[in-house]
Design brief:
Blueprint (H helix, E strand, L loop, with lengths): L2 H21 L5 E4 L4 E2 L10 E4 L2 E7 L5 E6 L2 E2 L11 H22 L1 E9 L5 E6 L6 H7 L4 E2 L4
Parallel strand pairs: 2-3, 5-8
Antiparallel strand pairs: 1-7, 3-4, 4-5, 6-9, 7-8
Length: 153
C-alpha cells in the first residue's frame, strides 16, 4: 500500500469516528474518496479504484488482508468487458460512461459512508455507498439512467 493510501485509510478511520452520528447507525465504514481513479488493467493490483459502474475497490482490509472488492447493492450497470456483455460495443461504451460517472460522484462527495450487506456469488462485498446527507450513490446512477435496480432490493 502506498503512503497516500495509508493516509487515506487513516483519515477514513478518523472521519468515521468523528462523523458516525451524521451518517447514522447502519454505517460499517467511512472512506475518503476524493482521489479515487479508474482501475488499472489486470494484473495490476487494485486497491482504490472503480472497475465499472457497480464494482470498485476501497481501502478497507478484508479477511485476506487485501483491499476490499465491492459491488453496489441492488444496482446493475452495463458491463465493460467483452466476455461479460451481451450488448456488444454499445454496452461496453455505456459501461465506460457509468464507471467514469461513479468516479466523478465519489470524487465530488469526497467521503463515503458504507453499509455492508454480505457477499455476492462472486465473493464481492455488497455495499450501499452514501454521502454525508445519506443519499444512496448507486441510486444517483439509476436516476441519471446509467444503472438499473437489480435483484430484490
Amino acid at each position: 500500500m502506498t503512503k497516500v493510501h495509508e493516509a487515506l485509510l487513516a483519515l477514513g478511520l478518523l472521519v468515521g469516528l468523528a462523523s458516525s452520528a451524521i451518517a447514522g447507525p447502519e454505517v460499517d465504514a467511512v472512506v475518503p474518496t476524493a482521489g479515487i481513479e479508474r482501475c488499472p488493467p489486470p494484473p495490476e493490483k487494485r486497491e482504490f479504484c472503480v472497475h465499472d459502474g457497480d464494482t470498485l475497490w476501497l481501502p478497507i482490509v478484508s479477511e485476506d488482508d487485501d483491499r476490499m472488492k465491492m459491488r453496489l447493492y441492488a444496482i446493475d450497470t452495463p458491463e465493460i468487458g467483452a466476455q461479460w456483455t451481451c450488448g456488444g460495443a454499445d454496452e461496453i461504451a455505456l459501461g465506460q460512461i457509468a464507471a467514469n460517472r461513479l468516479v466523478e460522484i465519489l470524487r465530488e462527495v469526497g467521503t463515503v459512508y458504507i453499509e455492508m450487506h454480505g457477499p455476492d456469488k462472486f465473493d464481492r462485498k455488497l455495499v450501499t455507498l452514501r454521502d454525508q446527507q445519506g443519499r444512496d450513490l448507486g441510486m444517483v446512477l439509476v436516476d441519471e439512467g446509467l444503472a438499473v435496480i437489480y435483484g430484490d432490493a
